[in-house]
Structure formats: structure tokens, C-alpha cells
């Protein structure tokens, strides 16, 4: 599941890069921004499911894993996209859109790190 989530997040980041290049802000509350808002909602839904499953697995496993570090990464990924979307919607400039690039890229980076923590 995290592989699909990573690809969707990278697609969201690429879409935001295109918007930065053409100097267009995605207004997430209007019809012209609904498609991108849908991508962000899909990413957030995937991260939410991943956080729920990951937290249960982290605190019920017999493996030697840094439970609180893994929980921090799961929760960090959970809040990255909504914070970036709020920021981008508040600042409707090229730089607000660039925040969406970073917010979407946080998800695959944290997924990579969670895999390293889970692997020991």
C-alpha cells in the first residue's frame, strides 16, 4: 500500500511543480481546484489508513522496533498534506503552491524512513 501512496504523492508533487512553473495557484475551494483537491484528499485518505494500521501494528508487535519514533513518523505524515493545503490556500502565490510540492514530497520521504525503522 505504501508504494501506491508514494506514487500518488509523487504525482501530486509533480502536478504542483507544473502549477508553480505556470505560476498558477490551485484554489482548492473552487471548481477549478477540485481535481487537485481530490488528489490531496486521496493522499490524505491513504495516509490515514496507513497511520491506523501502522499504529496498531507498532504497538502490538513483538518485533524490536522504535514504537514512538514510528508513531511520530506516522502522525507527521498524517498532518503534512493538510497543513500544506491550508498554507497554499491561504497564500495564493507561486510560493504557496511550492508548499504543496514540499507537503506532497514529505509523504514518500517519511514512508521510506518508516520502512527503515520497521526493518530495524
Please describe the structure with a list of short key phrases separated by commas or semicolons.
about 120 residues, mainly alpha, 4 helices
> What integer value in Å does the Rg equal?
15 Å
What is the beta-strand fraction? under 5%
SS-based class: mainly alpha
- How large is the count of helical segments? 4
Task: Describe the main β-sheet briefly.
Answer: none
Low-pLDDT runs: none
Give the tally of β-strands. 0
| Mean pLDDT figure | 90
Overall helicity: over 70%
Query: What is the helix/strand order?
Result: HHHH
Q: Quick summary of this structure?
A:
This protein is 81% helix and 0% strand. With 120 residues, the chain is mainly α.
Give a description of the structure.
The chain has about 120 residues and is mostly helical. Helices cover about 80% and strands about 0% of the residues. It contains four helices and no strands. The protein has helices spanning about 1-20, 35-60, 65-90, 95-120. Helix 1 (about 1-20) packs antiparallel against helix 2, helix 1 (about 1-20) runs antiparallel to helix 4 (about 95-120) and helix 2 packs antiparallel against helix 3 (about 65-90). It is elongated, with a radius of gyration of 15 Å. The model has no long low-confidence stretch (mean pLDDT about 90).
Set out the fold topology.
Layout: H1 2-21, H2 34-60, H3 67-90, H4 94-119
Helix pairs in contact: 1-2, 1-4, 2-3, 3-4
Amino acid at each position: 500500500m505504501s508504494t501506491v501512496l508514494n506514487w500518488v504523492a509523487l504525482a501530486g508533487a509533480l502536478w504542483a511543480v507544473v502549477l508553480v512553473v505556470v505560476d498558477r495557484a490551485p484554489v482548492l475551494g473552487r471548481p477549478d481546484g477540485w481535481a487537485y483537491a481530490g488528489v490531496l484528499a486521496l493522499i490524505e485518505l491513504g495516509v490515514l489508513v496507513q497511520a491506523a494500521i501502522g499504529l496498531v501494528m507498532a504497538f502490538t508487535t513483538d518485533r524490536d522496533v522504535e514504537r514512538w519514533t514510528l508513531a511520530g513518523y506516522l502522525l507527521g505524515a498524517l498532518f503534512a498534506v493538510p497543513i500544506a493545503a491550508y498554507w497554499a490556500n491561504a497564500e495564493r502565490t507561486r510560493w504557496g503552491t511550492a508548499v504543496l510540492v514540499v507537503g506532497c514530497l514529505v509523504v514518500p520521504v517519511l514512508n521510506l524512513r518508516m520502512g527503515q525503522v520497521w526493518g530495524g
